[in-house]
Amino acid sequence: QVQLVESGGGLVQPGGSLTLSCAASGISFSIYDMGWYRQAPGKQRELVATITHDGRPNYADSLKGRFTISRDNAKNTVYLHMSSLKPEDTAVYYCNAKWRLAFWGQGTQVTVSS
Q: Does 36 score more than 90 pLDDT?
């Protein structure tokens, strides 16, 4: 059974930083491209960042320079480090694993507010 479990969300003040983690099980993690997406209230889910199975990152243009995606294949985990957070970054953040099929985690809430 495939499981993607996100953690690390929470409440953070504007300008702060947060690192999300996504632990994968039930897949051969090292062959999967991994990604983070987010969905704000009333909006469609959107791409945040992806990282290929061999470590090449890709970012939404609007988030370049503030967000960093990384992966640890030994730990079957993908990370998203977010800095200089803004209220508009408030959303549920979802982990995605993609190879021949795509899998999603349950999401973790990130709220940026003073």
A: yes
